């Protein structure tokens, strides 16, 4: 069965829209986009149209690819101190001359819609309330929407990035899954992934997961967004794996729309916290 991220996001967005309509003002997100990478542009435009439909405001700050670090820093600083700004998103990746770690850390964690700030990652690590990274949060919302059981299941995560692999592992663990994290140095990868009841593919390599790596009846979540000959391809060989999976996310219309949906929920949460609601 296909886990339809687009349809689920639409439904959850409707719920969010209702909540947003009850607020005194519109939550506002500032996106900082450096350079003109076409993939980043298209993603940011998706975000823009979604938030507008939800009754929230998104401003995109287009910066030249040669912008100085200080200019980006100063812009973030001004948003940190502007009470009308509820969320700040610094679109990654940044050009090499900019220190993305330093710039991400300069975002006030109370406006960190991505949940990438050290404080938010620490709150996740300590199982305390905080903003969760959008992609893992979107995946959890998708699993829950379809009523997929997590407790006691063996979840295998391929990839250990700070953005997806590490936080999704912790979030699954906190829901009482038994979690195995695998990565580029893992030996006998297929032997491990074949044990997964829930398999999360977050490698960044097109069609990396083939059917010999998947157990019959597994739930397969494909986090990959790879562009091959102008087409979007996931980290999972969908045609091969779909027949043996009990549930599987497609690319596009799987995890991508859920990420954007989770960002909307994060912005709403930030707004409430900032207003002391
Ligand atoms: N600070 C930051 N936060 C991010 O959340 C972030 C980022 N930087 N940098 C880039 C990645 C990528 N990302 C996507 C989200 C949704 C889709 C999405 O909705 N994709 C559609 C297809 C869109 C298309 O056709 O291009 C889908 O999968 O159906 C894609 C990519 C968020 N990112």
Automatic annotation (TrEMBL):
Residues 133-273 form the Tetrahydrofolate dehydrogenase/cyclohydrolase NAD(P)-binding domain. Transmembrane segments: none annotated. Its EC number is 1.5.1.5, 3.5.4.9. InterPro entries: Aminoacid_DH-like_N_sf, NAD(P)-bd_dom_sf, THF_DH/CycHdrlase, THF_DH/CycHdrlase_cat_dom, THF_DH/CycHdrlase_CS, THF_DH/CycHdrlase_NAD-bd_dom. The keyword Hydrolase applies. PANTHER family: C-1-TETRAHYDROFOLATE SYNTHASE, CYTOPLASMIC (PTHR48099:SF5), C-1-TETRAHYDROFOLATE SYNTHASE, CYTOPLASMIC-RELATED (PTHR48099). This is Bifunctional protein FolD.
């Amino acid at each position: 069965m296909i886990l339809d991220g687009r349809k689920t996001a639409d439904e959850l967005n409707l719920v969010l829209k209702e909540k947003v309509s009850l607020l005194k003002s519109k939550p506002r997100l500032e996106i900082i986009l450096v350079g003109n990478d076409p993939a980043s542009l298209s993603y940011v435009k998706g975000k823009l149209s979604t938030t507008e439909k939800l009754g929230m405001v998104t401003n995109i700050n287009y910066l030249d690819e040669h912008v100085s670090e200080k200019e980006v820093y100063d812009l973030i600083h001004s948003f940190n101190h502007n009470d009308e700004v509820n969320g700040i998103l610094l679109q990654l990746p940044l050009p090499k001359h900019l220190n993305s770690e330093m710039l991400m850390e300069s975002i006030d964690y109370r406006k960190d819609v991505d949940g990438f700030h050290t404080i938010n990652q620490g709150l996740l690590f300590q199982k305390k309330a905080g903003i969760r990274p959008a992609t893992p949060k979107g995946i959890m919302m998708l699993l829950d929407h379809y009523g997929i059981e997590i407790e006691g299941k063996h979840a295998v995560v391929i990839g250990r990035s700070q953005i997806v692999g590490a936080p999704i592992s912790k979030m699954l663990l906190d829901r009482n899954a038994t979690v195995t994290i695998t990565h580029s140095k893992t030996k006998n990868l297929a032997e491990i992934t074949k044990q997964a009841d829930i398999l999360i593919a977050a490698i960044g390599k097109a069609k990396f997961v083939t059917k010999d790596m998947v157990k019959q009846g597994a739930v397969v979540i494909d986090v990959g967004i790879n562009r091959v000959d102008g087409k979007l391809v996931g980290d999972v060989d969908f045609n091969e794996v779909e027949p043996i999976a009990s549930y599987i996310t497609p690319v596009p219309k799987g995890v991508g729309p859920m990420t954007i949906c989770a960002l909307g929920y994060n912005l709403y949460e930030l707004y409430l916290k900032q207003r002391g609601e």
